[in-house]
């Protein structure tokens, strides 16, 4: 009997996975924000495989520091979203497939920045889930023990 129950559980789990995995891909295509973990972002930035951009405010950069090698560009640029996009383009160039990862405090603003750049035709932009300080998704960059440094341009 327990063998039958185990087989039923495995079959049920396989059926659920078969339904949910394609739905998650559809969600990503329909506006879901592509994400990577803080550890992935740190490794890729260190290896030069992505440009890491911290979209928090100058006050937040001074308060917690920034990830080594991250470029601080305030998403809430006083001159508006166009000015933010111009700063990003100035940093990474106009090549629309440049790998970029945005990080913020908890993952919300980095998702906004990702969608903003995607709307401008950028195709290889991700959000760092959890952000610097953590969220419901996980502990974040700082609590994960990843390196931070004092912001040099704040």
TrEMBL record:
Keywords attached to this entry: Signal
Keyword Metal-binding belongs to the record: no
Signal peptide residues on this chain, from the entry's feature table: 1-28
Family matches, as InterPro entries: Rhodanese-like_dom (IPR001763), Rhodanese-like_dom_sf (IPR036873), Thiosulfate_ST/Rhodanese-like (IPR052367)
Superkingdom of this protein's organism: Bacteria
Residue ranges the record marks as coiled coil: none
Residues in Rhodanese domain copies: 46-150
UniProt keyword annotation of Signal present: yes
Protein name: Rhodanese-like domain-containing protein
């Amino acid at each position: 009997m327990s063998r039958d129950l185990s087989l039923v559980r495995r079959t049920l789990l396989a059926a659920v996975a078969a339904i949910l995995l394609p739905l998650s891909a559809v969600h990503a295509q329909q506006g879901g924000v592509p994400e990577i973990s803080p550890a992935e972002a740190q490794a890729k930035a260190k290896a030069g495989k992505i440009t890491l951009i911290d979209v928090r405010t100058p006050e937040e950069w001074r308060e917690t520091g920034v990830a080594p090698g991250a470029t601080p560009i305030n998403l809430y640029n006083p001159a508006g979203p166009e000015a933010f996009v111009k700063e990003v383009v100035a940093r990474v160039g106009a090549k629309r497939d440049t790998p970029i990862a945005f990080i913020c405090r908890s993952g919300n603003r980095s998702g906004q920045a990702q969608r903003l750049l995607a709307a401008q035709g950028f195709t290889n932009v991700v959000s760092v889930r959890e952000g610097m300080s953590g969220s419901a998704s996980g502990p974040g960059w700082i609590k994960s023990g990843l390196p931070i440094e004092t912001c040099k341009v704040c």
